[in-house]
Prior knowledge:
Helix content is 37%, strand content 11%.
Amino acid sequence: MNPGTRVRLISDPGRVGTTTGKLRKRDGRVFWKITFSDGSQYISEKQLEIIQADIEDGLELLNLGKFGRARDLRGAITHIRLSGRLADLIYSMETTNTDFYPYQFKPVLNFLESPSGGILIADEVGLGKTIEAGLIWTELRSRYDTRRLMVLCPAMLREKWKLELQHRFGIKARIVDTGETLQAFRFVLVSTSVGQEGLDFHPYCHAIAHWNLPSNPVDMEQREGRIHRYKGHAVRKNISKIYANRLNGSHHPDPWAEMFEIARKEHWESSRGLIPFWSFPIEDGACIERHVPTLPLSRDVEKLQALKKSLVIYRMVFGQTRQEDMIEYLLSKIADADVRDISKQLQIYLGPPIYIPQL
């Protein structure tokens, strides 16, 4: 196949990609490298079908008898069910130690159909609000593998919640006071894509959770650049852990400036400015955290790997004109295993020159 040929999977006609011209042979079979919208992968030649340029309309495909198979429909329905997107299907049915009352599942359905992803349960006393909340949590665990639950309630109800969660839903809860809660859960800042450019979150954040995967490495870099910046939160946590005890008896008006100055003097020769201001790794210390909630076996898993590779390539061409074209070209020419080695070879050292006086 010539590079640039549009193809689709025979088993999944909706998955359309473009050939790169690269191929691999394995056990007498030919695998072509295909670039899809969410990344590249090698596909068996027998699983590919060339898209004819003059046949794009759905009615023409129907006239030609280009129908999906029954197992394709079953596979699509199974995939949708496994991905947890059906709002009219209760995944957690009969998985709890509760009696079945239809009205207690209405909040679950309302929660799944809610555009805001939340719900306020305000039933009267005795109708089972605790059970309704537990059913919603069980549904979330079944759909998204959710693992953390926090219940805020009056102190007199803490034991009741703990027993109900254990007996009815198999959840081993731990009772904590306000101080422990604030220590474990500081705060979460929620932002749309507006927050990925021009805002500085690094003074108080070092972890970012992507509510979805961006479509390109530029957006990914912009998002994570909000917390990975000069004297970021992770850097300052590690600095204070190492150097706070060195300030005993100090009268410096700015303790942070003094700790950074101590660290700079100790690490200047080896880092030339990057340490401690941009990075200060220590054992069991804080670091920049990236959290991407991906469903097992979903396309997001492959998309994340492709995006990480694109991100490395993007950093290689940073500052170049028409970056998208260069990224696409490099992705088609560089194998996955060679990306990191090549990027290291092309790195430019931007530290100041080392002056060696003449003897």
